Task: inverse folding
């Protein structure tokens, strides 16, 4: 090494010391001060955050694994563990996880920008630019910026995961992480069902709907659908009878929790996904599904009571679907106020206040996006969804192992269910569920790339 190179290295080391040592001193002083004034929780949180930041630069894959395990639990603490920092109100754990991912994920992507070769980058960039432009027209600018940052964190998670996964073993690891993340929510959801799981109609709506650690039963049901598709994907690779039995029992527990969400859209999405997956990978399962569905109707009669009003001419006008269609038709005129870039991402509920006199979600992600981000945002987001679906078909076509075929079939089933459920529910802005959806999407894109590398003999290079 030349004297010049040695001098540069010593200068860099000295600069790092000047940065690191003050940061460590500041970290210790802040911990001591917060502990001294009784803010123990905040002190612990800062130390955990600092630990995650350090670990990110050591091994980003490990941090993603930790985040995927705990993210599904954070919404349960949204109200109890929110606090203010530097005047920012209600900074909660879910918000901090999104900020963390957006910030350090961006640094990761900047460092590895040359490896991001996916056709989804362009429509994602167009959608984010359209959403960003919509903030300039928003009723509430701050609300739009918060929503935009959350959306950005989903796509950062997607792109990082695509880059990190390099072989099938890593695909299986991510699948297992998502499955493991469901154990605590399923336990809590099952306890809820045991304690409150009686169907009592209140204006044609059930008095109880399982939501576990999430903020809404629909999000909980769709999250469980993601887990189900990954479980079915892994099932084909498991040889042990004991493990297979445990996976079947876990699927039955998931099905029970999905039923007790009492969300008709989730039921339709779940049935659609299972039928498509069975057709693509396990056609014999199609013979067993009628027995399963009949068993659900017979053992849980509340299912019929939840569906019956939709087909009853006298009761239909009082159902949630009836007021949703009315809300959608009343919302469309607001699209014409700003048809290109919309009226501000995250601002639909402010518009609904003008329509219904109260804050309401759109219960239709496409109408919501049309009003909030205009034609540019809506078209680019729909393009993202259909490109993901096309990637799933490509991954299925070129897959060379049972797991990769099942993974692709599971994602195709999930994507079709997502596209359908978005017509009647609010999936787009539920962070807890979206994290797992975009991770699954990244796994599918990475799987298609791994199959291509295997065919080209580049997998181990």
Result:
């Amino acid at each position: 090494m030349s004297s010049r190179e040695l001098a540069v290295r010593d200068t860099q080391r000295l600069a790092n010391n000047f940065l690191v040592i003050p940061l460590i001193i500041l970290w210790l002083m802040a911990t001591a001060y917060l502990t001294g004034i009784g803010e123990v929780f905040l002190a612990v949180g800062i130390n955990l955050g600092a630990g995650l930041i350090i670990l990110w630069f050591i091994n980003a894959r490990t941090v993603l694994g930790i985040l995927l395990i705990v993210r599904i639990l954070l919404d349960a603490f949204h109200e109890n563990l929110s606090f203010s920092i530097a005047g920012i109100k209600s900074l909660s754990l879910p918000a901090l996880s999104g900020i963390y991912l957006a910030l350090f994920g961006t640094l990761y992507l900047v460092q590895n920008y040359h490896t991001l070769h996916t056709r989804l980058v362009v429509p994602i960039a167009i959608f984010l630019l359209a959403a960003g432009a919509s903030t300039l027209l928003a009723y509430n600018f701050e609300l739009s910026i918060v929503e935009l940052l959350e959306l950005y964190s989903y796509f950062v998670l997607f792109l990082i995961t695509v880059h990190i996964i390099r072989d099938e073993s890593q695909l299986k690891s991510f699948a297992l992480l998502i499955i493991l993340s469901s154990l605590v929510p399923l336990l809590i959801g099952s306890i809820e069902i045991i304690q409150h799981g009686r169907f009592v109609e209140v204006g044609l709506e059930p008095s109880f709907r399982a939501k576990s650690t999430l903020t809404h039963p629909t999000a909980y049901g769709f999250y469980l659908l993601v887990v189900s598709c990954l479980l079915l994907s892994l099932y084909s690779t498991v040889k042990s009878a004991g493990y297979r039995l445990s996976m079947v029992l876990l699927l039955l527990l998931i099905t029970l929790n999905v039923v007790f969400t009492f969300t008709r859209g989730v039921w339709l999405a779940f049935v659609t996904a299972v039928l498509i997956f069975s057709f693509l990978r396990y056609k014999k399962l199609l013979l067993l599904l009628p027995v399963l569905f009949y068993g659900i109707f017979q053992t849980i009669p509340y299912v019929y009571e939840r569906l019956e009003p939709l087909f009853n001419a006298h009761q239909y006008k009082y159902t949630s679907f009836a007021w949703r269609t009315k809300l959608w038709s009343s919302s469309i005129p607001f699209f014409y106020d700003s048809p290109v870039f919309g009226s501000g991402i995250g601002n639909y509920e402010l518009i609904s206040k003008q329509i219904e006199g109260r804050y309401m979600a759109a219960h239709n992600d496409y109408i919501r996006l049309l009003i909030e981000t205009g034609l540019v945002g809506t078209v680019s987001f729909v393009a993202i969804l259909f490109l993901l679906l096309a990637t799933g078909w490509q991954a299925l076509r070129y897959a060379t192992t049972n797991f990769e075929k099942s993974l692709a079939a599971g994602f195709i089933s999930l994507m079709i269910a997502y596209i359908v459920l978005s017509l009647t529910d609010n999936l787009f802005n539920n962070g807890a569920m979206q994290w797992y959806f975009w991770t699954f999407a990244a796994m599918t894109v990475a799987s298609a790339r791994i199959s291509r590398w295997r065919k080209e003999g580049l997998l181990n290079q």
